[in-house]
């Protein structure tokens, strides 16, 4: 019979439970989350279970990736229901540290990525963001010392930043998980619960427009014209666009045509009080 899932709150507890697994040569996977779990997170957990002997899911709403005007205080915290979901998935351990456990010397960013793929896009819209993400993921990796960590492709630029700046020095293999979507195409996100019924009905426009634009670019349509039209279509659906860009999929460098691939289209846009992001691969021509 599998052991019951444990919820751990300190680095010492985590080490005490994982060190015996490590000494037996068993593989450990970490799935970092901020909680408010949905089917997208659970898909990452299932992927982790396929790749490792033990799965740890961290639940920590990280203050260093929120600017003062953002939604840190109202970000949903649902540890009880999250625990029920993860127990059904057969997760070994939840790591739910306090802010003081993660930041014993104060809430500071001490890992700040600079250069591609951290430049532009989210960095322009939220200059603090990748420093906060890189800092907390580095600390989670040091606490859990996993062999692999699983991150969703919905946060595409974040995934590339972690693969480039955070994982290599700590020897952690990054496993990407495909974006999970609602039947109408909206990418699953904990922030979707903020959407009013009207805004929820409009939200699938992000995925629809990106998908149509990706096909047009793959067929040779000029990138500037396609992306200008994409921004206009997204705004027509009721969004305010932070960015809608075609970039090299790995470096996130700007591109001028489809021959500079692989390409990824990325968007961030606000509707009502909710900011949504999405991305789409440009098919190979």
Structure overview:
Helix 3 links the parallel strand 3 and strand 4. The chain has helices at 11-23, 39-51, 79-88, 99-102, 122-125, 129-144, 156-170, 197-202, 205-218, 223-236, and strands spanning 6-8, 28-33, 54-59, 93-95, 148-152, 173-177, 240-248, 263-271, 274-281. It has 285 residues and is an alpha/beta fold. It has a six-stranded parallel sheet, with helices on both faces. The chain has two domains: 6-177, HUPs (Rossmann fold), CATH 3.40.50.620; 190-278, Pantoate-beta-alanine ligase, C-terminal domain (Pantoate--beta-alanine Ligase, Chain: A,domain 2, 2-Layer Sandwich). The protein is globular, with a radius of gyration of 19 Å. It is 38% helix and 19% strand. It contains ten helices and nine strands. The termini are far apart.
How are the SSEs ordered, and which strands pair?
Elements: E1 6-8, H1 11-23, E2 28-33, H2 39-51, E3 54-59, H3 79-88, E4 93-95, H4 99-102, H5 122-125, H6 129-144, E5 148-152, H7 156-170, E6 173-177, H8 197-202, H9 205-218, H10 223-236, E7 240-248, E8 263-271, E9 274-281
Parallel strand pairs: 1-4, 2-3, 2-5, 3-4, 5-6
Antiparallel strand pairs: 7-8, 8-9
Helix pairs in contact: 6-7, 9-10
Describe what is shown at a glance.
This protein has 285 residues and is of the alpha/beta class.
